[in-house]
Amino acid sequence: MAGNTFGEAFRITTFGESHGTAIGVIIDGCPAGLILDLDFVQAELDRRKPGQSKITTQRKESDTAQILSGIFEGKSTGTPISFLIPNEDQRSKDYDHNVGPFRPSHADYTYQAKYGIRDHRGGGRSSARETAARVAAGAVAKLFLKQVAGITINAYVSAVGKMKVEKPYTELDLSSAENNILRCADPEKAEEMIAYIDGVRKAGDTVGGILTCVAQKVPVGLGEPVFDKLHADLGKAMLSINAVHGFEYGSGFEGATLLGSEHNDLFETDFSTRTNNSGGIQGGISNGEDIYFKVAFKPVATIMKGQDTVDKDGNKVELHGKGRHDPCVVPRAVPIVEAMAALVLADHYLRNKNAKI
Amino acid sequence: MAGNTFGEAFRITTFGESHGTAIGVIIDGCPAGLILDLDFVQAELDRRKPGQSKITTQRKESDTAQILSGIFEGKSTGTPISFLIPNEDQRSKDYDHNVGPFRPSHADYTYQAKYGIRDHRGGGRSSARETAARVAAGAVAKLFLKQVAGITINAYVSAVGKMKVEKPYTELDLSSAENNILRCADPEKAEEMIAYIDGVRKAGDTVGGILTCVAQKVPVGLGEPVFDKLHADLGKAMLSINAVHGFEYGSGFEGATLLGSEHNDLFETDFSTRTNNSGGIQGGISNGEDIYFKVAFKPVATIMKGQDTVDKDGNKVELHGKGRHDPCVVPRAVPIVEAMAALVLADHYLRNKNAKI
Amino acid sequence: MAGNTFGEAFRITTFGESHGTAIGVIIDGCPAGLILDLDFVQAELDRRKPGQSKITTQRKESDTAQILSGIFEGKSTGTPISFLIPNEDQRSKDYDHNVGPFRPSHADYTYQAKYGIRDHRGGGRSSARETAARVAAGAVAKLFLKQVAGITINAYVSAVGKMKVEKPYTELDLSSAENNILRCADPEKAEEMIAYIDGVRKAGDTVGGILTCVAQKVPVGLGEPVFDKLHADLGKAMLSINAVHGFEYGSGFEGATLLGSEHNDLFETDFSTRTNNSGGIQGGISNGEDIYFKVAFKPVATIMKGQDTVDKDGNKVELHGKGRHDPCVVPRAVPIVEAMAALVLADHYLRNKNAKI
Amino acid sequence: MAGNTFGEAFRITTFGESHGTAIGVIIDGCPAGLILDLDFVQAELDRRKPGQSKITTQRKESDTAQILSGIFEGKSTGTPISFLIPNEDQRSKDYDHNVGPFRPSHADYTYQAKYGIRDHRGGGRSSARETAARVAAGAVAKLFLKQVAGITINAYVSAVGKMKVEKPYTELDLSSAENNILRCADPEKAEEMIAYIDGVRKAGDTVGGILTCVAQKVPVGLGEPVFDKLHADLGKAMLSINAVHGFEYGSGFEGATLLGSEHNDLFETDFSTRTNNSGGIQGGISNGEDIYFKVAFKPVATIMKGQDTVDKDGNKVELHGKGRHDPCVVPRAVPIVEAMAALVLADHYLRNKNAKI
């Protein structure tokens, strides 16, 4: 009801605020017998953590996950797996100037109105810090998908501002995304985009971008046909990530411009399809082709430029960003998008076991 | 788990196949005391029913909803409200040619693979006929939102193929959409689009399109901040509709191209915002501005042109569409999109009652 | 939230009031491929229907279930299975005397207070008529359990008023319960009890009783270890049946009087246990032994004797029962208890598939 | 699905094993604005902790709860409230003798069979240690119920072995239960029972017992009428506590022996009832009278006497209990029963807000 839980069969619940003691997550429903590679979990967190490069926030947090339960002799036991990530370097004073003003396009006003009380030290629960808990849980989901079915999930930056990777994912080496600080799978574009973001940062501004995500070796049959279509759950997962304003899969918005005779994916005799406008999902159910989708992120709301705003009594005030924020959220969003995709796929993998007798 | 239920506090469960006895819906969680205007429910179903115009399927079904429970002396009683919509005019023989072939970009193959059994008379459960049940339930949600808070929801066709309504919704008379068979709120564009669809239909083809939906007078505070953000639930709702390939709200994909200084919505002293790139939602919670979003529909998969495909044993066969299908799904999708939006808002309206003591 | 749904993986939602058009149920999550023996479903409903004998209500309803969806060529398809049971012979006038008075120990007052509106024609949603929908769904769960694992479930009357079957279930022929109108597995006791109930009926009174239920051939591993212990879900299922005031399993309340050395069930080398005080469940998980439990039903609240009560304005009135009610609910409760047990076991059977990789 | 979550609107998820790093709980859905008295939370944990007296286990754990999130300036913020309780004094070697043998009437065998892996250091997740997390969450629920409605919940020991408190709760001073180490509200009986338990302990044995619990000042209207009846959820809550074998409310099993004319609770003109066989609940909904129920606990399975058992390969072995276990679970169960009752009532208090417009 209060919305801090995601998934049904492979289910996570997260807790914690940006400036409290710790954040964390409980994974309920991970089957017993999974080899829990905790180094991998930490490596995933490291991909998300702040302070990685000049185009991410300079805030330093080690984001070290402690496992508290659900493991015995290196394997999952079928009981809840929980991770705790202590908060460090909170520098609440960076946020003291925020006690009064409602920051534009942040959640300050809506939280205050909804709850009548607000932890004004940073974003509290609305901070993207909460996504570290998702990444830890998503790492376990990735391990699960890999161990039971060889499924892989790779996201990369495909647009920053008005700059786009023109090639489709099929013409890119997805693994190359980790070779640059932007996590863009097109090395040449990456350089241009990084330079652009650096300029935006120096101007005290921020910019939006787009991620593309691809899941491969997904078996046929994942997804429930009516409300819990596989792409509907992927869409919700992505839209639940801070700053996301759009989601499309397969042919996406472009597909709306096509004719049926152009769009239909014809079957081969092995039930693969010649084209993949369906994005690997037909009728809400995976069909064995690659699943791919795009996620649009708005520009980060905290900018270093002065902005007019109001305080909680409606008085006009001018706001000057301080703190240490990301000029562009997309490089750090890559592991988050992958994590949420992994959680959706793990959930539907388990749910699909009951499709037939 | 099997995904035929949507919502938490205002919750619906649908049942029924296109060629079975009936379809229907149970609404659980509608508060007692709502005036249940059954004529309005039927009027909403009439907006979705087939056979309305030359640009929709010529199949004729009256789609008459019978209320079975949850009403006493014209009001809701707090018990489950259920509607039954008998199937008529099923013409199973129109579909006999489908016993063998898997129709391209339909759910035939994935259902067969997932369940090992398939009702091959039309789409079965994957048929868009299921959405009639959603429209009936959505009509009750609309009545609820109107009676408790004056909330209104209006969708209209904003693109067909490559043709687009260029004006933003704020410059259109939304109520005018019902004046043309396309349900486009731009009368001039409507005529062009209708002519285009008619040509596509005559060519035996189909085409995609986009809907824009606007919810007004939504109070501040709806939406839960982490996984069940208001726009995440709207996104899932829309993506669960047949043929939807994309969802964006507020600035959407375009927002990803902007700078923070361009995108941020500055507050006025009454907490309204000068711009509304946030689409009426900040941090997942409604902020009192208009909520607006777009939904992309792929072209209908059933075309009257011959297509290569395979049967369930992988043998090549040629498929020739017969039946009576829509050349473009968007006009009939308008009440469906509104219904799903109403269900999400009703659900979050109830959930928000527990935000504070 | 509004509580008309039961189960997670094998999930039912019921609807309908005693004096509305129909009642019914949707089963969501029944795997595809189950042979749906509709004659069996009807036979189960016939065991519950009114008018079976002199010791049940004389109201006559055929309780004919129509299947509306989820079946194709005799098998389940994986989509929602729904049953509709039209109401007949409602004789609303039998209840006209109830418009004003709150019937003692009925739900009239609490419904009025909770919802502010009440369908005063009989019990509305609180009527035991709702359990017919459970029996139809439970029959499908029984078919499922039988077809996948050979599981059988048998309940019988083990006490009426102060009269008890002294023998444990292990010394009775459970199938013999269907040979008498009381559904008591002890033929001699049955005759005495029937005579007693008949006397109670003639005196215009009612009496309570106890059912014992036994599930056999349940595989090891069903039940989730913390909140959703198998016996906790069985307990909730039973306590959700009208008029139930108590539940115990295995050694039950008597077990609380024993020493650990008396109560512990020692293992044999095949992991069976010498005794079964655990009632087939250890740590909330089935252990392969028989599962058995008892369910206590209070006397039916509607009596033919005059009773003092008040109307909705708090004025004193005298109430004289008319209508046609059961002198003792237990014979008709047998199929209801079995149905709810089957629903719990089917749910946990499916959930257990994800215990380990 | 995996059953580590309880409640819908006021929802808890627990994690942790007896011999892992820590146990804990997340509370999701507690409204903002609650004054979080952390001393009270700790005091409740102290009532449950081991080592309190000669009739409880001599194991010493401080059971100190750390709050990690959901609090700001002493009040709840509407975000998840989480507590961490580190494990101390685990003495795994006390349990080393358990690596092989399946302890009779414990969950060793069923866990091994269900999960294929087992944390054999004590009970792991099946240990009653998990209930500390419930007590912490229940303390918050108690604060909530007190602050919003003045509701109080008191449990006490009403039977140990064959010894019973004969007086009904209405003739006892419930607050006196805290005056003796047994938590029995009848001081004279308490002494006898304590002496008896001490004898059982010295004999290396254990004994069962019964708790009575009373909730007062519960407003009319809590509980959902069909599956989520208030007493059904209370029953499930109690049956989910380790070692519970039975639950009854109001007249309970005794009620099954009565006539309707004896059992019915007649209304007064203020809608109170002359008697309270209904236990404060009619049709699953609270009616404003006291809610009372009983919970039966079997004897603790770990005894100090030798027992025959088998190891995981089915070989016969003799087991000699060591460790430090409770001779009778009931005194420490008092705060657990109260906590679970509080969680159910808080959940239904929130859910009831949506009963009518």
Automatic annotation (TrEMBL), chains A, B, C, D:
NADP(+) binds at R48, K54. Pathway: Metabolic intermediate biosynthesis; chorismate biosynthesis; chorismate from D-erythrose 4-phosphate and phosphoenolpyruvate: step 7/7. The keyword Lyase applies. It comes from the Bacteria. It catalyses: 5-O-(1-carboxyvinyl)-3-phosphoshikimate = chorismate + phosphate. Keywords: Amino-acid biosynthesis, Aromatic amino acid biosynthesis, FAD, Flavoprotein, FMN, Lyase, NADP. It is an enzyme of class 4 (lyase). Transmembrane segments: none annotated. The keyword NADP applies. GO terms for biological process: amino acid biosynthetic process; aromatic amino acid family biosynthetic process; chorismate biosynthetic process. Its EC number is 4.2.3.5. Reduced FMN (FMNH(2)). Pfam families: Chorismate_synt (PF01264). FMN binds at R125, S126, S127, N242, A243, G283, K298, P299, V300, A301, T302, R324. Its cofactor is FMNH2. One of its GO terms (molecular function) is FMN binding. GO terms for cellular component: cytosol. Belongs to the chorismate synthase family. This reaction introduces a second double bond into the aromatic ring system. Homotetramer. This is Chorismate synthase. It comes from Solitalea longa. The lineage of its organism: Bacteria, Pseudomonadati, Bacteroidota, Sphingobacteriia, Sphingobacteriales.
